[in-house]
Amino acid sequence: MIACYRNRGSTPHFLYKMQKLYEIPLLYDIAFRRPAVGYHVDGLIECHRRFRKDYQLERILELAAGPGRHSLEFAARNYKSAALDYAADMCRYASALAKQNSVPLDVYQANMRDFAIPHKYDLAMILLNSIGHLYTDDDLLKHLFAVWRHLNVNGLYVIEAHFPPWTNRDSLHAASWLLEMQELQMRVDFGRSDDQFDQDMHIRKVFVHIVGQLRGEPVDFQDYLTIRSWSGEALEHVIRESAAFEIVCKLGELNPDTEFKEHDAQRLVYVLRRLD
Question: Up-side HSE of residue 62: CA atoms within 13 Å toward CB?
């Protein structure tokens, strides 16, 4: 298990400063930690085994990686692993986690819309609806070309978007969850019915409220995250336009055995294969 990085030297600084959530990686990591990362990494490895079976999986790249939980899990399994994120604080945090857990991880601070890093990869991934930080078709097209340039022959790219997509104000549901473990008790409120929403672009300014206690100190943090909701039709249109990838399969979660079925899909997952 990959441990959680902690700075024990002082009271959590985010209690006293006006900051954005992506500038506070510890709080983000706690609030949005995905359970069963190992299970999802198993699914990604199985996707590579099935859909790129003539090539060995050696190098992986996690895009918009945040704390880099998936790339860290790959590194712990002895894959050559890299994480890319735009936020400097997230990159420092992921590097600290790698050091703390004694695993090698290449961490790059770069804009996923267009980037250049030293290596090419067998498998790239963008998870947890981080694709929603690309707002326009042009953004997504540039991004796909950048990923294409960094994949080996027949390399795979896995995109995990949320489902169902936001289509109108009635679809803007709110979610809340509780986090309770040693030294912390928190509630995360994600979204409100009155969030700002551009119905033409499907871009939502999502209200986030994190409240509770961490190491005996109060936490009461609010921010807005601007996210686009990509429908399958919109994603597929840009993928076809790029002519850089073919869609190998469409899944309902990060598991190649879970075919996408609209009535019960938990996620919208595309497995793409690089075209030469």
Answer: 30
Phi, psi of 169 (to 5 degrees): -65, -30
- Greatest CA span in the chain, whole angstroms? 55
CATH, range 37-165+230-274: 3.40.50.150
DSSP 233: H
Q: What is the pTM of this model?
A: 0.93
Phi-psi sector, 78: left (phi>0), alpha (psi -120 to 50), beta: left
* Domain assignments of the chain as residue spans, ordered by start: 37-165+230-274, 168-228
**Distance between CA 112 and CA 143 in Å, rounded?**
6
Closest CA to 210 of 32, 13, 9, 34: 32
Q: What is the pLDDT of residues 206-248, one digit of tens each?
A: 999 999 999 889 999 999 999 999 999 999 999 999 999 999 9
Q: Indicate the class that CATH gives domain 168-228.
A: mainly beta
pLDDT in tens, 118-155: 999 999 999 999 999 999 999 999 999 999 999 999 99
